[in-house]
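Table 4 source record.
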Amino acid sequence: MFFPLARSRRAGAALLCAAAIGLSTCGSLPAQVVVDDIADPSAAKKKADDGLPEIDEIPDGSTEELLAYIDKLHKTNFKPTSRQQAEAFLRKVALTSVTVADKILAQAGPKDEARLTASRMKLQSLMLLTQIGDREAEAAVAEFAKELVAGGDTELAAEGERMLLVGDAKKALQTQDLEAAEALVPRIGAVLEKAPDDAQSAQLAMQFAGALEHMPGGTAVAGKAYATFGGAFAKSSNPQIKAMGEGFAGMLRRLSLIGNEMEISGTSLDGQPFDQKSLAGKVVLVDFWATWCGPCIAEMPNVLAAYEKYHDKGFEVVGISLDTDRDALETFLKEKEIPWTILYEEPQGQGWQHPLASYYGITGIPTVILVGRNGKVVTMDVRGEKLGEELGKLFKDAK
């Protein structure tokens, strides 16, 4: 499935952020350590600790000296020869960062700005360690986060609460514990209500809600999350967060489609307004897709086969193209002899901003929705063999 948000491949994002939920831990990594930039792939089997750069001894100095030390450490220019070596170096840097943070915390006063900096550095470094498989760090993250929540600093308490939520969310998603995941919705919602302009909390909420939608049986809980988080986003003065709230409204609208009517509107590729009344009494597959989407193209023969088998019995397909290249779209439709209506909006198709895609909060394609003869949505799980199975049920009495 393709998603509209860019996925970074640099700075070890795939390795270090896959398990993270909405926390900017990647920002705390050494900027010059690039896991994908392998100097010698043939050396990948070398021991992880071979060739690691030496790290200067931690000074017994002032807060300023310690901060300067950590700044230099995080700017270390190192190109690993294997993913294992990258992990080893990042672990070394993270452990050193935790030690330095503890030294700063021992020196800094309650209102010292360095306390906030060191606390964040420690949290992020511990989180990094958990992401590269350090089990001991998981307990340390939770313990330190609880200390911050119980402390007197409002900003640090918020950081700690968010970190606890990240840990609990990771656990719920990894274990597919739907009950635990549902219990997190009001907790995250409360954090958003307290700080509606906080981008990190908003990112946590966004990624968690999206993950819920893909959990087995998680649709209803995802709907609760979209409603709860979307309401909080609407109160934000941050334009980007407010826009996320509008997107959540669309996602909730989509999740509420089962058993309800679906609005299908727009402009066909030939520039004519689409009339939904033309679908009255028909079974309709609504397909959000694009020519650049590999899974969409892979599914096309299956949809074509279903169309050929059931079209004369009252089956129709309406494709909503998220392409931005009209020529590429027209060429594809001509070469593949696609017979059904394609909705496409100018200028340049609008891509992910296609009005219907925005209205229903489409965040990944292909998204396919099957509508019954009565105009109400039957299911949104009709890819592959499931399409034929569902159509077989709907047309079982057709000759």
